[in-house]
Amino acid sequence: MNEQIITKDNIKPFTDQCFDRDNDKAARIVKGILDAKSPRISDISNAMDGNPDANYKTIQRFLDNNDPRENLHRLFNEDEEFVIGDPTEIYRPQAKKTEYVGKVGKDKKLGFWMLTLASPYKGRAIPFNFITYSSKTINDELSSRNLEHMKVISELKELLGDKVLVLDREFSYELLFENMLIEGIKFVIRLNIGNNPTILNENGDKISLTINPGDEVNMRGVYYKGKVEVNISGKWDKGFSEPMWVISNLPPEEAIEIYKLRMKIEESFRDLKDLLSIDKIMNQKQENMEKMTSMVLLSYSIGLLIGEGIREVEYTGKKRKLYSGLFILLKRKILLSKAVIADIIDNVYLFFCDIVLDSARTYMSNVFM
User: Fold this and answer.
1) Closest C-alpha to 349, from 359, 360, 341
2) CA distance 309 to 118
3) pLDDT tens-digit profile of 235-287?
4) What is the domain extent for residue 308?
5) How many angstroms separate the CA atoms of 24 and 13, rounded?
6) Strands (E), the chain
7) Does residue 156 sit in helix, strand or coil?
8) Packed helices 286-314 and 266-274: angle between N→C axes, nearest 10 degrees
9) What's the predicted TM-score (pTM) here?
10) Which CATH number is 197's domain given?
11) What's the number of domains the chain is made of?
12) Does residue 252 form part of some domain?
């Protein structure tokens, strides 16, 4: 990483906004995560200044005394019109005895799911909440994947307000549509055509989901499986091998455009794996794993924002779209002066403060009104 850019001193103002105590330790850990490009405590402690053994104990004490999962919620961006959900498989092939590791994916490999919720930001995303689950935790908790999805949706109900929740096709099922309509949550979800969903019109006739390349189809007041009233939009853009279908309780023309914006944000979730190795996280207890994951997501968000600030200044023309902000910060050589970098970080910090302040206002109004 560009050592002259990220220091404990310029990270601490960010952690001051996120944590009410142990802010200095939080700043050291965030810098350690970005330096190590790893979620593993041993890697982070080695990347931090000072004695690695002492650093390891510092991280453990910090996680014992704080719950970064709650601090992560402060990054909810009140000013954005929609929230994105993205599920990711985290494989742990060697963790046969780890309590939260079960079987995930079509191949039934050992691992767990992480469902991340994020606010869009300049074609990327800033995560503010997540849940983890697997076949093991679902069985142990007498739950199901669908109930786990509803758990996070119910937590979001008050926070979302009029915002739209945008989800991929893993969430294309009747129970979720039904519950979100009952809860009054606006949603846009990629329709899973592979399940051959039955869509009926108001007369009970089956509708064929067919479309020609270059065309768009919008349907209002149709019934998913003949039960749940929704709107459906389909569009087959030129250059794509298949059409895109979305299901929503918004006007269908609006829903398809919102989902297209979501597609541009998947790069952020790839960065979490490729640049910070979030899929290499190794904690024996689920609570500790989730706390450490929260620290990685906070570090990612701070690094992303600073990197995006650098991209705005240093990259123009075609190069502007080549790299994500985090890639620029961690992988690219940056030739800007210290004064310019300081100005960028100051501007990013002001934006960061606005997010945290707006999130606090939303929380306070929801709790006390």
Assistant:
1) 341
2) 19
3) 998 888 899 999 999 999 999 999 988 766 677 778 888 999 998 898 999 99
4) 8-71+297-368
5) 9
6) 82-91, 102-104, 109-121, 124-133, 164-167, 186-190, 199-200, 216-224, 228-235, 244-248
7) helix
8) 110
9) 0.88
10) 3.90.350.10
11) 2
12) yes
